[in-house]
Design a protein that fits this description.
The chain is mainly alpha-helical. The protein has 16 helices and 8 strands. A hairpin with a 2-residue loop joins β2 and β3.
């Protein structure tokens, strides 16, 4: 029997030779006696797999590797990578069968102990839920996946800028950030699509640009019509870089959420505003200008309509026809018959006229 400890883990690990290969796995416990029991069960399990054809068990590490390999078509954001790194510290080497509801609850409590919000905890647990569901449903590595309960999240309002606030912000930004900010407000593109926009994706003659499927979050190509302001911004970038539209000091522009961005927000008197809120601002302006939600969904490259309905409350024009079906004049006349409600006849006539002009 080979039990050992690693510097990066408080748990005992086992090393077993099987079919000409050496297996190393975490026992998930700092107790030597329990680790010895794990070792014996693992050896018995390997024998059952080899002699009786029992399905082999798989570790969290194996599941993560396969999940990432199959998810190459999707974008793995820095925050998602950070979540997986945190999970690795707690699930490294564990067999999937041992990641049950009790273990998931333990992860949830550990994260809450860090003082983070329920939203952050849920984002941390989403990879666990996705990987375990894959292991059970697609890969048949598990008989069933444990239930991963999410915490209730507060519904946050959409943060967007008024035209006047946007003007103040752009006025305070350095020149290279003025361009990308103005372009983002004109197109609603995500940060990566703006900073990674290449000249080969722009047709100024036709006033359009396009985002390739492998660059889009929903993995669908996005056609981007360019307004006159957007075209002017792009034209001003010509000659600054051979490949990329937006650059800084001759190099592709990568970082935009910089000290200069935050300082400009402070000088403009704008609080609680992130770069991605430029996209919310663009969508909010569209809805307030009367753009139909189905058209906004296509313009923004959203995969489902639910994402667009978040902005529906910013415009009531599509409901006006239903409101007008109620007779305002009849309502005013009816109120004059309520006991104790004294309204002069001339005021009723005036209100009737007001309703008629709506």
């Amino acid at each position: 029997m080979s039990l050992f400890k690693r510097k990066d883990s408080p748990h005992w690990w086992v090393k077993i030779a099987h079919n000409g290969t050496r297996l190393q796995r975490s026992t998930g416990t700092p107790d030597r006696t329990q680790a010895r029991e794990f070792h014996d069960k693992l050896k018995a399990s390997l024998w059952e797999q080899a002699r009786l054809g029992v399905k082999p068990s798989h570790t969290w590490n194996e599941a993560v590797v396969r999940y990432l390999a199959e998810s190459k078509r999707k974008t793995c954001t820095p925050s998602q990578r950070a979540h997986l790194r945190w999970l690795h510290a707690h699930l490294d080497g564990l067999e999937l069968e041992r990641i049950d509801r009790t273990k998931v609850d333990e992860l949830r409590q550990r994260k809450l102990a860090d003082g983070v919000s329920p939203t952050t905890v849920n984002r941390q647990l989403e990879p666990v839920r996705a990987i375990l569901r894959k292991a059970a449903g697609d890969w048949e590595w598990l008989t069933r996946a444990p239930t991963v309960r999410m915490l209730p999240e507060p519904k946050r309002r959409i943060r967007w800028l008024s035209r006047e606030e946007a003007g103040r912000l752009i006025q305070e930004l350095p020149k290279h950030l003025k361009s990308v900010t103005g372009f983002s407000l004109e197109t609603g593109l995500r940060k990566a699509n703006v900073t990674g926009l290449e000249w080969s994706q722009v047709d100024l003659a036709r006033c359009c640009a396009w985002i390739h499927p492998d660059q889009a979050k929903a993995r669908r190509a996005i056609a981007v019509p360019l307004s006159a302001a957007a075209v002017a911004i792009v034209r001003a970038q010509q000659g600054k870089h051979a490949d990329y539209v937006f650059s800084y000091q001759g190099k592709p522009l990568i970082q935009v959420n910089t000290k200069a961005w935050k300082a400009a927000l402070k000088r403009a008197g704008i609080a609680d505003f992130r770069w991605h809120d430029l996209r919310h601002t663009w969508a909010s302006w569209h809805v307030q200008a009367g753009t139909p939600l189905h058209a906004l969904q296509e313009l923004g490259g959203w995969e489902c309509a639910e994402m667009v309905r978040r902005y529906a409350h910013l415009s009531s024009e599509h409901l006006a026809v239903y409101a007008q079906r109620m007779s305002g004049a009849a309502t005013v006349t009816a109120t004059t018959n309520v006991p104790g409600y004294d309204l002069a006849t001339e005021n009723v006539s005036k209100l009737k006229g007001d309703f008629a002009s709506c």
